[in-house]
Amino acid sequence: MPLYRASPKDGVAWVTGASTGIGKAVALDLARAGYTVAATARDQADLKLIEQEAMGLPGRILAFPCDVSDEKGMERTVAAIEKEAGPIVLALLNAGTYLPIRGDRMETTNFVRSFEINVLGVIFGLVPVVDRMRERGFGQVAVTGSVTSYFGLPSAAAYGATKAALNNLVESLRFDLEKMNIRLQVFNPGFIATPLTEKAKFPMPALMKVEDASRRILKAFQSGGFEVTFPRRLTWSLKFLRLVPQPIRFWLLYKITGWDKRPIGPRDRRRS
After folding, report:
1. What Cα–Cα distance (Å) separates residue 48 from each residue in 11, 73, 86, 179, 193?
2. How many angstroms separate the CA atoms of 101 and 159, rounded?
3. Count of beta carbons in the 10 Å neighbourhood of residue 261
4. What is the pTM of this model?
5. For domain 12-261, is the CATH number 3.30.390.10?
6. Closest Cα to residue 147, out of 235, 62, 54, 36?
7. In the chain, where the domains are located
8. CB-CB contact of 13 with 221 (8 Å)
């Protein structure tokens, strides 16, 4: 029997990080496709605006505000969605943050917060939703990763590490989840024009519009495989670069990003 793929007639789609960027665009596209969409983010006001924006679409968007780094809150959110809207048959665990890291002014705060949101925020949603899918015998879960998971990039020590962790996590879980008829996917996009990429201070080739990225994701829900990556002209180049010997790759990345010309400030010896 083919592995399950979600359909609006089967139940609800749940999107975390739904207030901006990819999450918002996907939530609206899912509503256009006829889904009832449970939208989760911290800002209730932003979620209410998305609810209003979805009015008149074939589906609808319902706000379920929660901080993804709150484990018990995420358990309650999953329970509330299923009680108020119906069974979650499709989940996009998308919430994430990009906090740049520079070696000349490192601090633990940005590392910790990145892992709390990007990794634990996924786990805290994944565990309760998979529990319910397992009981029903079907479901589809997608996790938003990044091409920064392929190898280290300047200023992405925290972000790239969290996305590499997510890729390893879903690869490991795939062995068991597919036996339970739960389709697991990871989306590793390149650079998408969102509030996160606005923080980046390095060149972003093949920058995609968020609407185009959302269309790719909707298509992947319907027909995509385990890893979905786009735009291919960038991501396949990066996959090849991953195979290049490290000394050559480091040299190329210095040149491509312009990092060889970036000044490194004096070490801050002040104590907090």
Report:
1. 21, 19, 20, 38, 23
2. 9
3. 8
4. 0.91
5. no
6. 235
7. 12-261
8. no
